[in-house]
């Protein structure tokens, strides 16, 4: 994890330093922004994700420190933990509770959501919208979430007052944009509009990478989307629901697994989110055998490409299937 952290931070920060100092052509600046996108995605997938689950280290201080790296890529650690740890991991694929399947009315990720006419084409345009993910994070999303989570009483789960959480979001957003956007505008000899375009390119590529990794694990044909009853209870065993509504992909690809922080082993991650991802490959055999022993599903796509293809198929199905 230490080596990986150094590699990902280097991949993110070195091109940035070069942008400020020696890069003086547009095409080379775009190469730097692209490399930064790979580093930004790696930081999110391989470092801060484990840390915010408390799985990076046995030290709470180290987990908090590495988890806060999300601010270096424009996000809020507190909002991430609420959306991801509290809601997504507890209510995986539960419509109205899991915000990972609630991207707004422009996309339909659940058969229980209202179907719009334009959803018929979402398997074509969804990929572009995935690219908007981190652009929204670094601008308005965290502020909207903070206000909404306060009304729901969820900000209390972070052990800090709402004013402290909001102040931290404001400060970190200001610092992020001052460093990663304003500094290149000041010091780079490249025209300002190319700098802005490069900044947006970095976020767009990062959003596409993150969208493909996370959505190809849950918005899949194998998912059953449990719903709460009239009392708010979900009639499903939590662990079994994780198996049904989560899908692995490319389990034999060492390079992909290394880069995406083991999130190609989403089944293992959802069952054991407090275990560092470097162990997922080894425990996957135990999980698979146990699932088979109890006649439970263990969903896994052989390759990342086949997972994306299945996800696209599910997008198409959801775009044409009537509301359940």
Keywords, please?
324 residues; two-stranded parallel ribbon; single chain; globular; mainly alpha; 13 helices
What is the succession of H and E elements?
A: HHHHHHHHHEHHHEH
Could you tell me the mean pLDDT? 94
Number of helices: 13
Count of discrete domains: 1
Low-confidence stretches: none
How are the elements arranged and paired?
Blueprint: H1 2-21, H2 26-52, H3 60-67, H4 77-88, H5 122-130, H6 133-152, H7 162-187, H8 192-215, H9 238-244, E1 248-249, H10 254-259, H11 266-271, H12 280-293, E2 300-301, H13 304-320
Parallel strand pairs: 1-2
In short:
The protein has one domain. The chain contains 13 helices and 2 strands; from the N terminus they run αααααααααβαααβα.
